[in-house]
Amino acid sequence: MRYGRLMTTTYAVLSEGLEKRFGEVHALRGLDLAVAEGTVCGVLGPNGAGKTTAVRLLTTLLRPDAGSARVAGHDLVREAAAVRRRIGVTGQDTSIDGDLTGRENLRLFARLHRVDGAAARAAELLDRFGLAEAADRPASGWSGGMRRRLDLAASLIRRPEVLFLDEPTTGLDPASRNLIWDAVRELTGEGTTVLLTTQYLEEADRLADDIALVDRGRVAHTGSPAELKALVGTHAEVVVADAEALVAAAGVLDRLTGAQPSLDRERNAVGAVTKDATLTLPHLVRTLDAAGVPLLDASLRPPTLDDVFLRLTDGPGPHHPFDDKERAA
Ligand SMILES: Nc1ncnc2c1ncn2[C@@H]1O[C@H](COP(=O)(O)OP(=O)(O)OP(=O)(O)O)[C@@H](O)[C@H]1O
Ligand SMILES: [Mg+2]
Question: Which positions of the chain have pLDDT values less than 70?
Fold first, then answer.
C-alpha cells in the first residue's frame, strides 16, 4: 500500500484545501481533489478557473499558500523531491527545443533526469508515439500535433507513477487529438494515474473515469462523465415560421422533454433541455409533424461545457454564471 488511503480506495493524488494567491488574484480557494490510483481524472473549467495553477502546485512548481496534498504517496511540500521523482508533467506550453531534433530533445531530457539507457528509452518512446520517422529532423519543423506528442514522450522518460497533462490537446486537429487520447489510454492500461486538464467535455468524456469541475479556484462538482451529462441533459431546439406555430411547438417540446421550454420570439425558436437519452431527432420531427407544426429547423445538441456550468453553478438564470459580480466570494 504505497499511497494515502481513504476508505478502501488508494489515491495517487489527494489534496485538501489548496490555496494560492497571486497578489490580488485568489487563483485557488481551497481545492479538494481525490484521484484514485490507476484512473484518469479530468479537471474541467473555464479560462482562469485555476486548472494550470492546480497542476503547477501538484507538480511542485509552485508552493501552496495553504492546504496540503499527497502525490504518489508523498507530501507535496515536505517531500517535494520524492514527489518530483515519481511524476511526469506536460505543461500548457511545450518545453521542446526547436533547434534540436526529436531524438536529441528526448536524450537531453533523459540525461537531465539521469535516466539509465537514455538512447534506448528515447528510441522506444519515439517509436511508441509514431515519431520514429521524423526523429532526426529539427523539432521546429514538426507539426503542432507531433510536438505535443514529443512533449508527452518527454514527460514519460522516467516512467512516472502519476502523469499531469495541462490541456494536452488544445489546438490540435482531430487526428492528433486521437493519437494523444490513445497514448493516455495505453498509459492507464499500464497502471499510470493521469490528471489532465481540459476545456473539452468530449475529451473528459472519452478519457476520464472521474471529472472535477473547477470554478473559481474550487471544485464545484465531481462525478463520472455519464453522471455529469445526465445532470445536464440534451438541448432540443425547434425553429418555426410564426408565433402561432411557436406556441404549438412549445407544447410538443413540453410533452416530449417534460421540461419547461424557453421561447425566443425574435427567432421563432423554442428550446428545452431533456434528460431523456432516448429522444432522437427523427422522433422529435415526426412528433412535430403529427401535431401539424410547420418546421423550419430542428436540432438536438449534446451538452457543452457552458451548459454544464450553467447547470452546476447557479443554474439557468438572468445572469451568466461566470460573472464574478453576481456571486459572493
Ligand atoms: N503567475 C501568475 N501571476 C499572476 N496571476 C496569475 C498567475 N498564474 C495564474 N494567475 C491567475 O490565476 C487565475 C487562475 O489561472 P490559471 O492559469 O490557473 O487558470 P486556468 O484554469 O489554467 O485557465 P486557462 O483555461 O486559461 O488555462 C487567473 O485569474 C490567472 O490570471
Ligand atoms: Mg491553464
Answer: 1-8, 304-306, 309-310, 313-329
Nearest atom in ligand 1 to the alpha carbon of residue 50 is 18
Could you tell me which residues are beta bridge partners of residue 299? 237
**DSSP 8-state secondary structure symbol assigned to residue 101:** B
Tell me, using a 6 A CB cutoff, whether residue 218 lines ligand 1. no
Q: Which ligand is nearest to the CA of 54?
A: 1
Beta bridge mates, 20: 28
Report CA(200)–ligand 2 centroid distance (Å): 13
Answer yes or no: is the C-beta of 30 below 6 A from any ligand 1 atom.
no
* pLDDT value of position 172: 82
Cβ-contact 57, 64 below 8 angstroms: yes
Percent of residues in the chain assigned helix, strand, coil, to nearest 5: 35, 30, 35
Q: What is the C-alpha separation between 54 and 18, in angstroms, rounded? A: 8
Contact 217, 64 (CB under 8 A): no
Quick one: cell of 58? 501538484
Predicted confidence at residue 11, as pLDDT, reads 96
Backbone angles phi, psi at 184, to 5 degrees: -65, -45
CB 222 within 8 A of CB 214: no
In this structure, is the dihedral angle defined by the CA atoms of residues 217, 223, 226 and 227, taken in order, positive or negative? negative
pLDDT at residue 180, rounded to an integer: 87
Average pLDDT along the chain: 87
Place of cell 492507464: 188
Classify residue 96 by burial, with Cβ atoms within 10 Å: 0-12, 13-18, 19+.
buried
Q: Model pTM greater than 0.90? A: no
Give backbone dihedrals phi and psi of 4, rounded to 5 degrees, phi first.
-60, 145
Closest CA to 134 of 117, 116, 153: 153
| Closest C-alpha among 183, 155, 185 to residue 86 | 155
pLDDT of residue 303: 75
